[in-house]
Design goal:
Order of helices and strands: HHHHHHHHHHHHHEHEH
Radius of gyration: 22 Å
Family: Belongs to the XK family.
Strand content: under 5%
Catalytic activity: a 1,2-diacyl-sn-glycero-3-phospho-L-serine(in) = a 1,2-diacyl-sn-glycero-3-phospho-L-serine(out)
Subcellular location: Cell membrane; Membrane
Membrane topology: Multi-pass membrane protein
Organism: Melopsittacus undulatus (Budgerigar)
Number of strands: 2
Strand order of the largest sheet: 1-2
């Protein structure tokens, strides 16, 4: 299968930038609607989730830029970049820089290998930041929107449309991140259409029951969610810490990364350490399934018999089969549809899923160590169970560049 070219990445970067701008406008529109309908508390909650998600995403973006070699940073003075991040415009600056690099690559008459790898690197960072923003902001807002719809027992057309598009966007962010990881692979085995569809569906089928369970629990005890979330988040944070992540450049920022990943894990699986993931995945999904089941049983047990939400019982009954179907599709994906199977056949499920990504492939070795940073090294060691020809030489060179920067 032919790898997707820079034009494809440029289109995705432009679409992502436009979607991010529309998302901000949509949040403002929803908040204004809540104020006009006499629900300022909901408006404050929507804007608060927007602010919290933006602060976390901008902090990660700034810490990454600060640790990047000069060749990978946007052409702006560090004080200006810091000011843009304080103004919550840092990610937008990244998107515009990626669009500029992608436009230059597309205009080049001859293929510029380093520029294409630079573009791939920028797109990967943006994809990961969008994934963080999705779970820090969009997914909690989606849960809140579902809570409002169930509480009022009425869905306006815009709310219904927003609910469907939000579920699709959350799942798409996971697929986009998974696809962006593959841009570093030398063999360039891209996700096929069937692989992308199955990957999209199993994430959708696993996330929907989780959000439904939290929303149902909030119907009975809205403030209890403020207790449940920190407790589960703390458990996930400790679990991530015990896995010994080494993604950021220093221990302090590493705690921020672990905190953000713990929020992601509250809703969806996210691999953070190297080695076999089968057992970790079983532990995680068993915990989430048990937790979601308890939340749903609380709603079923304590709701009033004359509750007007009785129509939700068939939906709740379908949640467990939906989650199990998601697990079956995930096993199917890693067993038969994963792109690494094109490179090395005959590998068992646990080997293919060893890092949640690929096996039997090699990373693209850059000709300059400036195009390798600490996150790239972490991806080599954690996300891919693969070899990298001459990789150690480049990693040592990159370490020298970073220490001098």
């Amino acid at each position: 299968q032919e790898p997707r070219g820079p034009q494809y990445r440029l289109v995705l970067a432009a679409a992502g930038t436009a979607a991010a701008a529309l998302d901000v406008l949509a949040d403002g529109w929803v908040a204004v609607g809540y104020v006009r309908s006499g629900r300022p508390g909901l408006a404050a909650l929507v804007l608060g989730l927007r602010a919290a998600g933006s602060l976390g995403t901008q902090a990660c973006s700034w810490l990454w830029l600060r640790s990047d070699p000069p060749a990978l940073r946007p052409p702006a003075a560090p004080p200006l970049l810091a000011a843009l991040h304080l103004l919550q415009l840092g990610v937008l600056c990244r998107c515009l820089h990626a669009l500029k690099v992608g436009w230059n690559v597309c205009r080049a008459k001859e293929e510029a290998g380093e520029e294409q790898r630079h573009m791939a690197f920028l797109c990967h960072d943006i994809s990961m930041l969008r994934l963080f923003e999705t779970f820090l902001e969009n997914t909690p807002q989606l849960t809140l929107l579902l809570h409002v719809i169930l509480q009022t027992n009425r869905a306006e057309p815009l709310q219904g449309l927003g609910l469907c598009t939000a579920f699709l966007c959350v799942t798409w962010s996971l697929l986009d991140y998974h696809q962006s990881l593959r841009s570093f692979l030398q063999d360039k085995y891209e996700l096929s259409l069937s692989s992308s569809i199955v990957y999209f569906l199993w994430n959708l089928f696993l996330i929907c029951p989780r959000i439904l369970a939290v929303a149902l629990f909030s119907l009975l005890w809205p403030y209890a969610v403020a207790v449940h979330f920190p407790l589960v988040w703390l458990a996930m944070f400790l679990w991530v810490s015990l896995q010994g992540t080494d993604f950021m450049e220093s221990p302090g920022p590493e705690q921020l990364y672990r905190a953000v990943v713990a929020v992601v894990l509250y809703f969806s699986w996210f691999n953070v350490s190297q080695g076999r993931t089968l057992h970790r995945s079983i532990i995680y999904h068993s915990f989430i399934l048990l937790d979601s089941t308890l939340l749903t049983l609380c709603w079923l047990w304590y709701r009033s018999p004359s509750d007007e939400h009785s129509y939700l019982i068939p939906v709740v009954s379908a949640a467990l089969p939906c989650y199990l179907l998601g697990l079956v599709l995930r096993v199917t994906y890693y067993k038969w549809l994963h792109p690494s199977l094109q490179a090395q056949e005959g590998r068992g499920f646990d080997e293919v899923d060893a890092n949640g990504t690929s096996g039997g492939m090699e990373l693209l070795p850059p000709s300059e160590p400036d195009l390798v940073n600490r996150r790239m090294r972490w991806l080599v060691q954690t996300q891919f169970s693969i070899s990298w020809p001459g990789g150690q030489r480049f990693l040592n060179g990159a370490a020298a560049v970073e220490s001098a920067a």
